[in-house]
Every structure is written in structure tokens, then in C-alpha cells.
């Protein structure tokens, strides 16, 4: 019996030891501050922390570079989504919209993080690389030419200068020639220490793979302003749940997750918490339903109108956008976008009207099985394809369930494209070949700002996404792409929204809010940019410690 | 007959009977259509005993209907696993020689393959039909049963009446069907019942990862949406707790059944 | 004699590993989808498809994806033999480096869990099995039975909700908070691992308990035990001399199997607690169709299983000489 007791005792002791170790740790100081007197802004994200190559946009390092943390962009956007100077300090667009003459901050004493000065050579190198890799951010750019040590001339085709200026905002960053010219092969695969070098206000100083934290150190005085804090840490969490808990316990100060705002279902968990601002803003992006113009019956206006009248927008609003979600208008694009037309009517459900439209269009239930047939009498079974996205999948499936239920209520038989739910490649193929009928997708805030949801609807040379080739729509879209000023752009956007209203080329499913919560107890001076949140290109120069 | 069974067996049987009845009569028992959408995120009330989910569907009715898919997956997978395990184990044990070597090699490989990761890989890449999920669950689960059956058959083979039949020239098939199989009944029962429980646990894990059946209610599926549509961080216990309890209760039923069977087996030997 | 069986076992293990290497290759190759999409990323892939489809073919060639299956298989075998597992499709980093890093953290969680559970489950099972129907048996058995009915991920979620979300005693996820060094970091890691460790220990303990209990209660009914007791031997002596000796072999085999399965065994727990181990690595690799990563993970897991099966045989041989005859009989 002694033996048994000893064994039990030692087992209990082992268990005790572990718990003791844990409770001792729990009384330790809140981590993240590092114990030094340096002031740190602690950011949380869900982008994975793998790779620190400034030529890629991968992981939390790449996504944070959209805010100009470590790499400096040529131009940025402001709260209204309009282009603002950064490394490109001023510009002029020629009348034919084919030449952009710009000055650059190569005389402001900016240096790369390894101490080398930033020069015109770097500017030329960056644009030449963009041309060579046929970057989608600089479409139409054909040549770059140095005029003097601060000025260069960019040449475009098809009048794309203004378009490219807007597309490259936040996304195209200046690259150090001296680092990359010695790299053989694909820049994106380069893993060297100096791959992270940029000329932004913060320099990457380390990565802790266990904690998944990247640390950045301020470079001090900077031509855009001097940061009021010394360090930035970016910690990766596996889920928004964990990130919110970290915010609530004060482990981090703010959330950044490019285009992945907290889902509206989580809003209650960040509302009414002490020292926590839910960081709500109007989302310029939205979830949308796109019709397949290559397929019957979605190529038929009557059918599309019937779908528009059949859907339960109240349920869609709460499922997608929660309490703060809004029922969208018929023009698709959300209120924060440039050229938004508030005069268009709001979507509303009227199933009797939907049935009447279907009857009139010849969609009758001839065989009496409770579902309508196509006007030619053949069977109708409409495929609902959700976009493939691992994190949004639960919501996409929920939206699909709502659409299915609503359409069946007006006698339209539907099937969920299950293959696309599991298999990303099948989903891609369906979209690429344009063989979908009803496609549920998402326009991210970044795309919404300039390209807008219409990019997913149009089919033309530079856009493989959509299937709509209605001449009036294509013309209006081209006009938007070639606009030279925000006035021209907005006018074209108004036309596009009017066409969306009349031709029902797609439907916004909800105009939701974005939530990028942040703490208010340590820092102040945040600017909440719609769809981006408080970690943006202004953060590094305007945020300062509270009571300092 | 039932009176002689251990208490665990009876309790298990009772639990399973209730669950089976709930599954069969779900449409009659359910207060609402679980696919009918309404106001989302309602708290429990007289009208909705367990509140509503993110689409306004009645969670209580979802649970009742969920019994069906969860049970079907559990039972069919267990049947497949047991049949495969018994066939391989019996052939290997009875025929011996090269058959034994080859089949045991296959079994050893199946045992060394990481079962949950392989199941996840299959479930992730096959289209999400009920049958594919069952295949994914079964693919490596049969190896344990095969080994146990084999060692039991090795014992049975040495019994005098089998030896006599063999010397009398009875065919292998005849002996296996007539003498070996009936004597395996107890062990097959215990393993089979255990396999139902295991399959249900695996299904719960798959559904939780979003790799379960799409468009039909299952317990794991309810839990998946509760987790990924913020039921947990918002503290909606009426959403995430009931499916966990349902899974546990039915697995408990099967465990008790096999536990009782095992006791019976131990007593008889 | 024993030497020959051992060699046979070793050969068998190598054969099994080879079969698994082959299966790995085909299982993963037959999955639908174009891996190039995951190698270069979605946006880039679509971009290239419109502007420069030939680049996609070049990349396919670079990764050897355009060769015949047989050739790809031979290349794969050659590389595996040289321990060259290639680079991850997703992160471009060397696979082996990543897998070893993740393996370290899985082992950090799994080894203590297995060891603690081995002692705890064994001791408690011994206690309950020695006095079946006793007070302890009646109290503990239902508890452990209940634990084994809850799916792992569910128990993990319940722990997460209760001790991390509601009570706030433990961190939600991850391995460490970062920014710490030395002793403080060690404590922080312990603090993070407490919940996942507790979940794993509970599961393993309950299965160990059940095994030990049933083995001991069977042995207790044997004649030699009753004889020993009637001869007046003390309980402790009977336990250590007769019961433990006979119960140890099946128990050790089971513990070895747990060690063998530990690389993949804590997968669901790792996913729920975002523990950056093999489990989460495999799950991410599945989502990203990262073939080299999956293959390497599966290979290491299988080798681990096979190796510990071998060790189990050796241990039994050492503990219980009678097994030697049994091995000859079977093998």
C-alpha cells in the first residue's frame, strides 16, 4: 500500500508544480511593454507572421506596409479616399492623361534603414520593376524617365495616368535599388536579412516566432513628422475572438487587419467596454450578389428584377451587418464611396411583385411540382456559388441559405455549389470561366475606394472577374477608369449606379459598418479611416501618448 | 434476457433508445421548422426554448433534427469500419501465412498513418457529401478492430472442433462462416458500438472545422456556427452548450453499451 | 533468437515507413486543384493568367509539377532519402526548419501531458482496479467515463470559455506574449500552456485509468493473486510483485503508443488554443494546399508511430520475458 501512496503523492506533486508555475506567471506584469521605458504602440492583427520581404504583400509585415509603417508609399489616400502626397510630393497630369510629371522626396534627407540615402535611382528602379512585372497597380505605365534629382516623368498608355495614381496609392512602395539589384531570381523569394529594408518612419528590428510578434523601432526625425512613440509591435492572433480578448485585457492598443474588420456579430463584445472604442466606421466595401450574364436565366432582366424583389433584406442586413447594418440602395456602392448617389431607392422585399414579374416573364410552374420552369419549358435550377474564403465561409454559407430560402419562396429552385465551398480551384474556375449564375462575393474597402464593386461585374480586357457586357455599362465603366479628376470619376460613378438600378446587374446585400476597435487609455489622436480603422498612414505621425 | 445484463448496458440502451426516437420523430417533436428563418440571436424563451441562431432559426428544433445526421454518420461509419476490420482480421488470422503477413502489413501502415490529419485532408478536398465524410472517417479507423479480431481468430482456430472440421475437409469459407464468425459476435459487438462513438466524435471535430455536411443540420454543424458566428465571445451558452451535451450524451450511450458488453465478455471468459 | 526477431521487426518498420512515404505522395498528388495557385498566391495567379500564362507554366516546371507522375515519384523518393523536403509553397521557407520548430512546441506540450497522465492514470487505475466496486472506483470511473465522451475540441472550448474568457485566469491563445526573456518568459509559457496541457492530461488520464483499471481487476481475479494473499503476503507486496508486474506490459505498450501518436495527437487542442505546433501547421497546410509541408509532417508523424511501436516491443521484452515467446509466435 505504501508503494501506491507514494506513486499517488508524486503524481499529485507534479500536478501541483505545474499549477503553481502557472499562477506565479499570472501575477507577473502585463507583457508586451517589455519592461523598458520605451513607449510602444502595440498592434494586433490576424494576418500570419511569415515572411519579411518588402517586395511581397504577404503576412502581417506586408499588410502593415499598406500603412507606410516600414516601407514608404509614393502616394496615400485620406478619409475621403482621395490621393495625398507622400514620397511623391507633387504631380501634374497632361491633358491627354498619358504623362504624369512628379517630384519626389529625394531631397528631404530620407535614408533607407541601413543608412543609405534615398535617391532618384531608387524611384526609377521601383517603377521599372513595376513595369517589368506588369503590376496591376500601375496598369498602362510604359516608361519612366529622370528629369532631375527630384523630378521624373511617367508615361502611360490609354489615358491611364490618373487611374494608375489612384490604384497605386498605399500599395506601391519605394524599393531600395542597392538591396535588390544584387538579388538573383525572383525578388519575392528572397529571404535575406535586408529584404525588409524600407524608408518609412519605423525600421523592423526583430521577430519573435514563438510570440508571433514583429517589433519596429522609430527612425526618429522623419520628413512627414516625428512619431511620438519609440516602438511598434505587431502581434498575430489566430482569430478575431482572441484579438478582441487581448484588446479587452489591454494586451494590445489597437487592431489592424487590412479589409478584415471584425464581423458585425462581434460588435456586442467591443461595445460598452471601459477604455475601448469599437472603432466603428462606414464600410466602403460590401457583400454583393453578382448575376451571371453568360447563363440562363440570370441573363434575363425580368429574372434579375424578380430576384431583387424576392430577397429578405432585413434578415440579410442583420445577418451581415448586425444591428448597425443598413439596407442597401439599388446602386450597389456604399455611402462612403466617391460619387455615391443617395437619390436611388433602397432595396425592399416584395414577393408578390417578384412572382408577378416571373409570371409575366414566362417563368411558370407548368408541371406543378411547386417550382417554376424556364420560359421554354425546360427545368430551371439556379446555382448559388459563394466565393471561396476560409475565414468568411460561415457567413457566405449563411447568405447562401437566405438566398436559397427566399428564392424558393417565389418558386425558384436553387442549388448550392458545394464543390466551390470546399475546393478553391473549382470556385476560381467557375468565376474565371464566367459559368456562375448567382455569385456571392465581397468587395474589400481597398477595392471599393477606386475600382469599386463594379469591377466584379464588368467583363473587359483587364478584368477577368465579371460577365456583364451591356454596352452602356461598359462605356460608363471605361469613363470611370479614364477619369482625370475626381469630378469626372464621380460623374461616371453616378451613371454606373443608375445603370445598376435599371438593369439590376448586381445587388449589394448589406451596407455594413467596419469595426476596428482600439483602446483609449494609453494613446490619443487616432483617425478612424472608413474601412481601414485607426491604424493607417496617419497613425505614425498623429498618435501621441495620453496626458503627455 | 435484458435482466441479466449489467446495469451500464441497460442505461446505455435506454439513452440510445431515447436518442433514436428523437431522431426518428424529430419532425413531430420539433416546435418549429429548423430551416425557417426569423429574428436572429433571440435569447431562450417559451417560444424558442433555446433561443435562435444567427439566422433566426430555432436552436432547439435544429438540435432535434441534428440527431439524424449525427446518428447516421455514426452508425454507417461504424458499420463500414467493423465490416472492414472483421473481414481483414478474420482472413488474416484464419488463412495465416502470406495472407497474414500482407494483411498485417497493411494494417500496420494504416495504424501508422495519422488518422485525424488524413481525415481532415480527405474531408477538405473531397466534395462535402455525406458519403465522402463517412469515407474520410473510416479510412484508417478499421485497423484496431482488425488486429483484435485477428488475435481472437488465432485462438479460435486452435479449438478442437475447428481442427476436426478442417481434417474432415470443410471449406475455409464454411468454417469461417459457420464456426469462427458466430464466436466473434461479442467482440464484434463491443468494437462496433465503440466505433459508433468514435465516429461521432470525429464527425464533431470535422464539422467544427467547417468540414462537415453542408446544408443539413448536425450537432457538429450547430457548434461550428456557434463558434464562428461569435456565439462564444458573446456568451450565448444556449447556442454552444446543447450540441456539446447532445454529442456527449449519445457517445456516453454507446460507451456504456460497449462497457456493459465488455463486462459480460469478461464474466463469460 | 531474440536478436533475429528484433532484426525482423526493424525490417518490418522500415517497410512500413516506405509504404507510408509512397502513400503520402499519391494521397496528396491525387487531390484536386492547381498547386501553382498556392505557390505564387491567388492575386498574382489571376494576374498572370490574364497577362502572362506562360509564366505559370514556367513555375510549374520549376517545381517539377509538369513531369509524369512516376518521375515525380522518383524525384520525391530521391529527395526524401537525402532529407531534402524542399520549400513550403506558402511561406517559401525550408519545410524542415518550419516543421522542426513546430515539432518542438508540440513536444513541449505533449511530452509533459503524456508523462503526467501516465503516472496519474496508472496510479488511479491501479487503485480503482484493486478494489473494484469500492468508494474510489464508484466516484472516479463515472467521471473519467464522462470525460471520454466529450469531443476534444468541445472540452477545449469549454475550458477556453470558462477559464480564459469568463474568469480571465489564463491567456486565450498562443505560446507566449512576447517581449519577455529568461525566467519571466518561462513562466509566461507555462501560463499559456496550462489550459491545453490540462485538456490533454484529462483525456490521456481517463483512457489510461480505464486501461489500468480493467487490466488490474482482471489480474486480481487470477488464482495466483488469491494464493499470494492467502499466503499472507502484504497488499503492497502482492501489488508490486504480482499485479504490477503483469499489468505493466499492456500499460507500457499503451503509453508507448501515446508517445508514438503525440505529434498529431493534440491537433484539435492546438487548433482551439492556437498553439503553434504540428496540429495547427497541418491544418494551415491543408487550407493552403502546401504539399511539401503536409508530406513532411505525415512522414515524421508516421516515423514517430513506428519507432515507438518498436520501443514498446523492446520494453515489454525487458519487463516481461514471457513475451519473447509470444513474439516468436506472432512475428
UniProtKB/TrEMBL annotation, chain B:
TM ranges: 7-30, 69-91, 103-124, 130-149, 237-259
Any GO CC annotation of this UniProt entry: plasma membrane
Compartments where located: Cell membrane
Highest taxon listed in the record's lineage: Bacteria
Protein family: Belongs to the binding-protein-dependent transport system permease family.
Topology of this chain in the membrane: Multi-pass membrane protein
GO biological process, alphabetically ordered: transmembrane transport
Family matches, as Pfam families: BPD_transp_1 (PF00528)
tRNA-binding recorded as keyword: no
PANTHER family referenced in this protein's UniProt entry, alphabetically: D,D-DIPEPTIDE TRANSPORT SYSTEM PERMEASE PROTEIN DDPC-RELATED, OLIGOPEPTIDE TRANSPORT SYSTEM PERMEASE PROTEIN APPC
InterPro entries xrefs: BP-dependent_transpt_permease, MetI-like, MetI-like_sf
Keywords in alphabetical order: Cell membrane, Membrane, Transmembrane, Transmembrane helix, Transport
The keyword Cell membrane is annotated on this UniProt entry: yes
All copies of domain ABC transmembrane type-1, residue ranges: 67-258
UniProt name for this protein: Dipeptide transport system permease protein DppC
From TrEMBL, chain C:
Mode of membrane association: Multi-pass membrane protein
Family: Belongs to the binding-protein-dependent transport system permease family.
Compartments where located: Cell membrane
Principal subcellular localisation of the protein: membrane
Protein name per Swiss-Prot or TrEMBL: Dipeptide transport system permease protein DppB
Tree of life domain: Bacteria
Coiled coil regions in record: none
Gene3D superfamilies tied to this protein: MetI-like
Residues in ABC transmembrane type-1 domain copies: 103-312
Keyword check for Transport: yes
InterPro entries with a match to the protein in the record: BPD_transp_1_N, MetI-like, MetI-like_sf
Amino acid at each position: 500500500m505504501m508503494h501506491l501512496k507514494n506513486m499517488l503523492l508524486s503524481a499529485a506533486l507534479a500536478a501541483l508544480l505545474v499549477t503553481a508555475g502557472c499562477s506565479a506567471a499570472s501575477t507577473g506584469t502585463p507583457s508586451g511593454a517589455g519592461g523598458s521605458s520605451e513607449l510602444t504602440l502595440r498592434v494586433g492583427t490576424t494576418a500570419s507572421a511569415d515572411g519579411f520581404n518588402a517586395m511581397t504583400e504577404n503576412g502581417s509585415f506586408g499588410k502593415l506596409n499598406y500603412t507606410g509603417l516600414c516601407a514608404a508609399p509614393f502616394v496615400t489616400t485620406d478619409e475621403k479616399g482621395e490621393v495625398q502626397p507622400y514620397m511623391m510630393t507633387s504631380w501634374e497630369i497632361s491633358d491627354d492623361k498619358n504623362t504624369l510629371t512628379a517630384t519626389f522626396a529625394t531631397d528631404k534627407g530620407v535614408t533607407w534603414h541601413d543608412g543609405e540615402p534615398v535617391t532618384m535611382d531608387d524611384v526609377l528602379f521601383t517603377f521599372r520593376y513595376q513595369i517589368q512585372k506588369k503590376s496591376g497597380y500601375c496598369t498602362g505605365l510604359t516608361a519612366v524617365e529622370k528629369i532631375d534629382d527630384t523630378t521624373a516623368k511617367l508615361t502611360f498608355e490609354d489615358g491611364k495616368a490618373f487611374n494608375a495614381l489612384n490604384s497605386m496609392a498605399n500599395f506601391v512602395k519605394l524599393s531600395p535599388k542597392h538591396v535588390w539589384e544584387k538579388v538573383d531570381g525572383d525578388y519575392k523569394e528572397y529571404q535575406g536579412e535586408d529584404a525588409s529594408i524600407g524608408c518609412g518612419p519605423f525600421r523592423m528590428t526583430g521577430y519573435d516566432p514563438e510570440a508571433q510578434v514583429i517589433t519596429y523601432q522609430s527612425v526618429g526625425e522623419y520628413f512627414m513628422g516625428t512619431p511620438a512613440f519609440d516602438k511598434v509591435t505587431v502581434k498575430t492572433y489566430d482569430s478575431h475572438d482572441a484579438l478582441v480578448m487581448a484588446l479587452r485585457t489591454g494586451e494590445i492598443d489597437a487592431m489592424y487587419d487590412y479589409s478584415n474588420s471584425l464581423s458585425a456579430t462581434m460588435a456586442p463584445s467591443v461595445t460598452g467596454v471601459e477604455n475601448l472604442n469599437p472603432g466603428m466606421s462606414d464600410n466602403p466595401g460590401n457583400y454583393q450578389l453578382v448575376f451571371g450574364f453568360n447563363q440562363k436565366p440570370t441573363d434575363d432582366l425580368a429574372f434579375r428584377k424578380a430576384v431583387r424583389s424576392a430577397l429578405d433584406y432585413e434578415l440579410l442586413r442583420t445577418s451581415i451587418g448586425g444591428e448597425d447594418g443598413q439596407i442597401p440602395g439599388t446602386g450597389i456602392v456604399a455611402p462612403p464611396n466617391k460619387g455615391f448617389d443617395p437619390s436611388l431607392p433602397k432595396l425592399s422585399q416584395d414577393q408578390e411583385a417578384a412572382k408577378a414579374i416571373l409570371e409575366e416573364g414566362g417563368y411558370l410552374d407548368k408541371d406543378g411540382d411547386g417550382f417554376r420552369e424556364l420560359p421554354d419549358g425546360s427545368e430551371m435550377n439556379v446555382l448559388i456559388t459563394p466565393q471561396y474564403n476560409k475565414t468568411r465561409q460561415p457567413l457566405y454559407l449563411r447568405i447562401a441559405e437566405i438566398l436559397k430560402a427566399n428564392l424558393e419562396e417565389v418558386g425558384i429552385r436553387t442549388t448550392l455549389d458545394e464543390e466551390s465551398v470546399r475546393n478553391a480551384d473549382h470556385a476560381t474556375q467557375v468565376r474565371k470561366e464566367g459559368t456562375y449564375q448567382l455569385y456571392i462575393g465581397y468587395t474589400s474597402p481597398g477595392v471599393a475606394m477606386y475600382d469599386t464593386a463594379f469591377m466584379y461585374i464588368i467583363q473587359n480586357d483587364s478584368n477577368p472577374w465579371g460577365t456583364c457586357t451591356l454596352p452602356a455599362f461598359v462605356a460608363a465603366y471605361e469613363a470611370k477608369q479614364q477619369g482625370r479628376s475626381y469630378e469626372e470619376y464621380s460623374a461616371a460613378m453616378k451613371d454606373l449606379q443608375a445603370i445598376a438600378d435599371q438593369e439590376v446587374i448586381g445587388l449589394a446585400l448589406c451596407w455594413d459598418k467596419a469595426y476596428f476597435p482600439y483602446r483609449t487609455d494609453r494613446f490619443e489622436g487616432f483617425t478612424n479611416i472608413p474601412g481601414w480603422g485607426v491604424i493607417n498612414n496617419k497613425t505614425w505621425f498623429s498618435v501621441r501618448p495620453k496626458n503627455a | 434476457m435484458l435482466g441479466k445484463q449489467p446495469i451500464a448496458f441497460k442505461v446505455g440502451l435506454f439513452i440510445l433508445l431515447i436518442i433514436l426516437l428523437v431522431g426518428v420523430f424529430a419532425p413531430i417533436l420539433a416546435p418549429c421548422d429548423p430551416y425557417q428563418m426569423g429574428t436572429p440571436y433571440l435569447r431562450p424563451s417559451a417560444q424558442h426554448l433555446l433561443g435562435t441562431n444567427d439566422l433566426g432559426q430555432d436552436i432547439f428544433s435544429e438540435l432535434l433534427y441534428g440527431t439524424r445526421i449525427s446518428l447516421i454518420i455514426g452508425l454507417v461509419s461504424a458499420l463500414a469500419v467493423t465490416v472492414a476490420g472483421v473481414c481483414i482480421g478474420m482472413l488474416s488470422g484464419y488463412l495465416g501465412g502470406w495472407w497474414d503477413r500482407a494483411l498485417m502489413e497493411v494494417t500496420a501502415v494504416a495504424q501508422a498513418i495519422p488518422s485525424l490529419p488524413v481525415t481532415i485532408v480527405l474531408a477538405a478536398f473531397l466534395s462535402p457529401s455525406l458519403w465522402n465524410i463517412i469515407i474520410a472517417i473510416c479510412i484508417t479507423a478499421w485497423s484496431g478492430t482488425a488486429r483484435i479480431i485477428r488475435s481472437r481468430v488465432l485462438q479460435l482456430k486452435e479449438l478442437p472442433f475447428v481442427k476436426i472440421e478442417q481434417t474432415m475437409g470443410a471449406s475455409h469459407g464454411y468454417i469461417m462462416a459457420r464456426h469462427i464468425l458466430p464466436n466473434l459476435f461479442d467482440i464484434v459487438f463491443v468494437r462496433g458500438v465503440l466505433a459508433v462513438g468514435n465516429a461521432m466524435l470525429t464527425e464533431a471535430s470535422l464539422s467544427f472545422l467547417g468540414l462537415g455536411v453542408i446544408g443539413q443540420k448536425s450537432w457538429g454543424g450547430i457548434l461550428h456556427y456557434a463558434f464562428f458566428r461569435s456565439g462564444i465571445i458573446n456568451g450565448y451558452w444556449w447556442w454552444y452548450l446543447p450540441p456539446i451535451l447532445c454529442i456527449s450524451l449519445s457517445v456516453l450511450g454507446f460507451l456504456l453499451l460497449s462497457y456493459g458488453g465488455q463486462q459480460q465478455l469478461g464474466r463469460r471468459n | 533468437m531474440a536478436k533475429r526477431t528484433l532484426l525482423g521487426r526493424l525490417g518490418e518498420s522500415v517497410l512500413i515507413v516506405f509504404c507510408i512515404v509512397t502513400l503520402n505522395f499519391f494521397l496528396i498528388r491525387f487531390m484536386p486543384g492547381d498547386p501553382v495557385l498556392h505557390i505564387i498566391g491567388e492575386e498574382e495567379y489571376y494576374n498572370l493568367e490574364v497577362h502572362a500564362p506562360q509564366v505559370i507554366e514556367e513555375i510549374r516546371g520549376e517545381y517539377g509539377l509538369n513531369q509524369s507522375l512516376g518521375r515525380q515519384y522518383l524525384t520525391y523518393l530521391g529527395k526524401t532519402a537525402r532529407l531534402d523536403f524542399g520549400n513550403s509553397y506558402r511561406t517559401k521557407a525550408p519545410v524542415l526548419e518550419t516543421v522542426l520548430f513546430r515539432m518542438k512546441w508540440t513536444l513541449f506540450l505533449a511530452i509533459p501531458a503524456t508523462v503526467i497522465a501516465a503516472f496519474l492514470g496508472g496510479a488511479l487505475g491501479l487503485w480503482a482496479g484493486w478494489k473494484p466496486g469500492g468508494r474510489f472506483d464508484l466516484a472516479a470511473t463515472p467521471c473519467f467515463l464522462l470525460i471520454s465522451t466529450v469531443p476534444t475540441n468541445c472540452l477545449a472550448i469549454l475550458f477556453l470559455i470558462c477559464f480564459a474568457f469568463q474568469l480571465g485566469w489564463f491567456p486565450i491563445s498562443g505560446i507566449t506574449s512576447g517581449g519577455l526573456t529568461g525566467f519571466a518568459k518561462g513562466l509566461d509559457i507555462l501560463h499559456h500552456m496550462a489550459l491545453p496541457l490540462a485538456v490533454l492530461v484529462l483525456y490521456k488520464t481517463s483512457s489510461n485509468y480505464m486501461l489500468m483499471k480493467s487490466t488490474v481487476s482482471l489480474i486480481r481475479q487470477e488464482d495466483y493473486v488469491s494464493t499470494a494473499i492467502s499466503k499472507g503476503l502484504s497488499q503492497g507486496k502482492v501489488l508490486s510483485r504480482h499485479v504490477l508486474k503483469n499489468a505493466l506490459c499492456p500499460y507500457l505498450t499503451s503509453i508507448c503508443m501515446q508517445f508514438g501518436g503525440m505529434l498529431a495527437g493534440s491537433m484539435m487542442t492546438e487548433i482551439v488554443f492556437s498553439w503553434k505546433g504540428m496540429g495547427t501547421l497541418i491544418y494551415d497546410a491543408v487550407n493552403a494546399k502546401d504539399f511539401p509541408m503536409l508530406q513532411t509532417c505525415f512522414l515524421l508523424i508516421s516515423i514517430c508511430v513506428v519507432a515507438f511501436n518498436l520501443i514498446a516491443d523492446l520494453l515489454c521484452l525487458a519487463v516481461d520475458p514471457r513475451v519473447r515467446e509470444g513474439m516468436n509466435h506472432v512475428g
